[in-house]
Amino acid sequence: MSSFSAPRDPSRRGFPRGNVRTRALVPTIVVLVVLMAIFGIFTNFWTERLWFGAVNYSGVFTTTLVTKIGMFAVFGVILGAAVFANLALAYRLRPRYRAMSTEQQTLDRYRAVVDPHRGLIAGIAALLLALIAGSSAAGRWETFLQWRNSTSFGTQDPQFGLDVSFFVFGYPWYRFLIGFGFSVIVLSLIAALVAHYLYGGVRLQTQGQKASAAAQAHVSVLLGLFVLLKAVAYWFDRYGLVTAGHRMSNQAFTGLTYTDAHAVLPAKTVLTVIAAICALLFFANVVRRTWLLPGLGVGLLVLSTVLLGWAWPAIIQQVTVHPNEPVKENKYIQRNIDATRQAYGVNGAEVKEYTAKTSTTAGQLADDADTLPGVRLIDPAIVGETFEQLQQVRGFYTFNKPLDVDRYKIDGESRDAVVAVRELSLAGVPADQRNWNNDHTVYTHGYGLVGAYGNQRTAEGSPKWLQGGIPTQGELGKYEPRIYFGEESPPYSIVGAPKGAKPVELDIPGGSGDAKTTNTYQGKGGVPIGSFGSRLLYAAKFQDFNILLNQSRINSASKVLYDREPRERVQKVAPWLSLDSDPYPAVVDGRIKWIIDGYTMSADYPMSQRLLLDDATSTSLTRQPAIAGQPSERLNYVRNSVKATVDAYDGTVSLYQWDDKDPVLRTWMKAFPGTVQPKSKMPDALLDHVRYPEDLMKIQREILAQYHVTDAGSFYQGTERWRVPSDPTQQGAKQPAYYLSVRMPGEDGPAFSLTSTYIYFNRENLAAFVAVDADARSKDYGKIRVLQLADKTQIDGPSQIANKLNSDTRVADALLPLTRGDSRATKGNLLTLPVGGGLLYVQPVYVESGSGDASYPLLRLVLASFGGQTGVGTTLQEALNMVFQGDAGADTGENAGDQPNQPEQPGKQPNQPNQPNQPSETVAAALAEASKAFDQAQAALQKGDLKGYADAVARAQEAVGRAAKAQAAERDRADQATPKPTPKATPTRTPTPAPRPG
């Protein structure tokens, strides 16, 4: 009998084939996606390896990678294996016979689906959980390395007698292990319960026994492990009390309190014992197989937790502590004070009472003649636009703002300077010149450092340059001016060429004499990109296939420069450091070096007050969190342990051990041997520019605002609390700390210092002045000196002084002729100095004419205040003479150090000298006469002499008019003598054309 097949319907022939193609397409897409993901991971991994090799920090990459992989594997395997093992055990312990019930009939259908694939399902579940656990554990690689390489602090906590290293390095790791253990047990318990329920070991709806004997034993063991681990957690909770947060006397308090020591600590010990007993009851349930005793144990544990862990401490706090808090908490407050001052490095702060004078006499500043030249009138937060207009040269250059403060030796004398580097900004390149070749191979670097004297300016009010121009000229001698690595560098540039190839990188716009207009990078920095494989990897990394396709600009000698921002480079080679917000450039041994301060931090120093990092480091100049890196939101230990440099030409990163006593740094140096060089390896010339870091000062001044009080009783009362004043030029933000050269009372001479002020917690009056020696060559580097004003001395704080200056009629009259039309005035940093036996306030006033691209601020006036008297002048000297009855008694040095050959300003003829900065005696005399007339008018008004009042006002107005005319004449002369500035960069301007591709 032959077989018979009915003919197929022709209309249905396509469906099977279409389904086959669809089934083949889906796996293909999945495979492609997986391959792309693998290639992306490989690209990131390999390019990172190449980058670390190029900067000679391969050890950091290897150690970090191995640690992460190791933790990922170990913890992932532990959790995955535990979950899989419990699933397998639950399956093996399944009952052979299951009573028939509606519940079991329903489960039979699920078992029929799951059972054939149970191994695969269990494996996938375990694998997914293992990946999650491994990823979480890999993120704690720093915690592991700190525990593994922990270094003793040599200091014991007062409660437990343990070395501080246990709390800083060990305790976080042990807490992580405990938390991971809970995760393993809880996930294993959930997996076991699901498996037991699916296979009938647990029966929720069946009458009688709800679990089989095997399931009961399995679950009892897991619950016993959970409670036993809880006992371990209770024990370690005891150590966590030394960093616990509280409220005491309506203020935050970190550390062990009386209630913690006498109620919580014993309660944790008792709960540890009860939890251990409860765990034994669960283990016994494997044999006895009754939930009565474990249930009683859990009930006892819960009840004890409520009574001992909450109720009893609350009773002790309310009944014993609150009525006698100053006495009961005295010992613990003192511990907090001592630990906080030690942890933040302020235990050596020197606090002296300062009875400030509030009267003025002629010649009062004679003893401070060496301090007044250190008053920095050039405000780095304001003159950035001035630097751009006068030193930008081309629209594709820029200066990162705010500018930086440094010091240089000029003719053997250390001079404060405001500095910045002329960096490349692709945003300034005209749109019609923006293309891949120009963006990545032509516009590759900035050029030169620009510096201005901190206390001098020209007659027109612009900064007086100590270095500037293109080619760079000035007092700093010859150095490598090219900036390939900076704060404004492009994301990546491709540089380098074989010998003899035509240079294509724009170097000196337009050229100058014999100077070349193009350049080829010769530095050792950068990753070689000449091979096809490297080009393919970086084309994928930057998602730019021009790297792969370009044949004219990329050659066998080419290198790619990326991750060029100084902080970013240091952060990559030292990921365990937290970095200061303000890298600053300096010319060191003929190279421009970026100097970055690195911090080691912790939030686990016992009994030390925790601080919100964002709040402490944010000021009017840094509104966002300042410190970069991986610091926690709170900290209670900080050290400036590392000074780092980044070479602006070749990107070389160098780390120097600055604090050789810091246990945290020594721990990391053991984890990454050879990464940090000893302090003795630091170039000697670098010490001239190393300074005390601003962000550390911000943190320490926040601590000292409260912890300058060292007696627990006075601390508790809170009557001596201070706070950092608001910036009077930007209300709502804290005043920055300022670098100044000042001489503190009792010191031999002025020192380059970082200064700040305090006002009272609930008043605006000045409470104290603080300065830290910021000169790395000084034997007192880092010494904090606080001048605490005597209680009976009432000195106006910054906001009060600003209000007084704003309302002073002489200041208003001096500003009037300068702010006519569309001109506007901007007040600079309000500086405070301890001179003349009191406290002097100085504030520069900048005037900017118009609002167009060519406008920029010029220093026109200086305001001063001392002892309730105010002064105003075109120079600081004039302002001080007005304050101190016509004679300050000392020279401010605003005209000192004039050099015949100053750096050229753009557009200036090569040998054209700068105009001398001569203060106008005519203006000063007229303003002084006006001030005297206003005083006479006020006196006449108080006596009721209206005629005398009118005559005096007329004389004052006439004197102000003469001052205005004299000042206008000076401005006209300055405008004629000063070259026109370079206009601001705009996208529509056409700068020097880029070189054509070679």
Description:
The protein has 998 residues and is of the alpha+beta class. Helices cover 42% and strands 17% of the residues. Helix 1 (14-54) packs across helix 2 (58-92), helix 6 (164-198) packs antiparallel against helix 7 (213-240) and helix 7 packs antiparallel against helix 8 (258-288).
Sheet of most strands: 6 strands, mixed
- N-to-C span: 86 Å
The helix fraction, in percent, is 40-55%
Strand content: 15-25%
* Gross morphology: globular
Short recap of the structure:
This protein is α+β, with helices and mostly antiparallel strands. The protein is built from 26 helices and 34 strands.
Feature tags:
998 residues; alpha+beta; six-stranded mixed β-sheet; five-stranded antiparallel β-sheet; 17% strand; globular; disordered C terminus
